[in-house]
Specification:
With about 190 residues, the chain is mainly beta. Helices cover about 10% and strands about 35% of the residues.
């Protein structure tokens, strides 16, 4: 807060709640809507508690309260057991000129929910590390990106991709190749 007073460039909390129907609720703790990473976050009254460490070194759950005056989330909460298990991404962004950039992001899961006519209270917990796929990408020779996706980055006129490094080189897109070309195969190169 002291840094924000000095530099006048505060961090803004953005919340991206993924709903069971794959839609998203994106809100920010700010006085106007902002666009971050191509997604619009709307101003909304939010209070974020503290993530503390127990005396055993374990992280406690993170409490978050969202205004319930409009009751927009109540149908989802009632239909989907309080949204328990849903993914919530917290992003702390800052303004850089005319755009907003992510400084820190962290992903949580809703572990519990309660609400009244004024407030929705969620407790957020980190993912169970035993459920996390490591590494998050397969280590294979072929490109793993979907052709012309943001990860791929190809914007040319070709309609297909062979998912090989050679194909990326031909398209001038080798810097965005999503495979691991040094993986040993049974091929013999001359």
């Amino acid at each position: 807060m002291e840094k924000n007073k000095l530099y006048g460039n505060p961090f803004i909390l953005c919340i991206d709640l993924e709903l069971p129907d794959s839609s998203h609720v994106r809100i920010c703790q700010y006085d106007k809507r902002i666009v971050v990473g191509g997604h619009t976050y709307y101003p909304f009254p939010v209070h974020l508690g503290e993530l503390k460490e127990s005396n055993k070194g374990e992280l406690t759950e993170l409490p978050i309260q969202i205004s319930n005056v409009a009751q927009e989330l109540i149908p989802y909460i009632e239909q989907y057991d309080g949204l328990v298990g849903q993914q919530v991404e917290l992003l702390w962004v800052f303004q850089n000129g005319n755009s907003y950039e992510v400084a820190i992001s962290d992903t949580f899961q809703i572990t519990s929910c309660s609400y009244d006519e004024r407030t929705i209270s969620f407790n957020l917990g980190h993912y169970n590390l035993l459920d996390v796929l490591i590494p998050q990408r397969k280590v294979i020779e072929q490109c793993q990106w979907e052709f012309k996706s943001p990860e791929c980055g190809y914007t040319g006129t070709d309609a297909t991709c062979g998912k090989t490094l050679w194909d990326c080189i031909q398209k001038g897109n080798e810097k965005r190749f999503g495979g691991f070309p040094t993986i040993q195969t049974n091929r013999i190169y001359l």
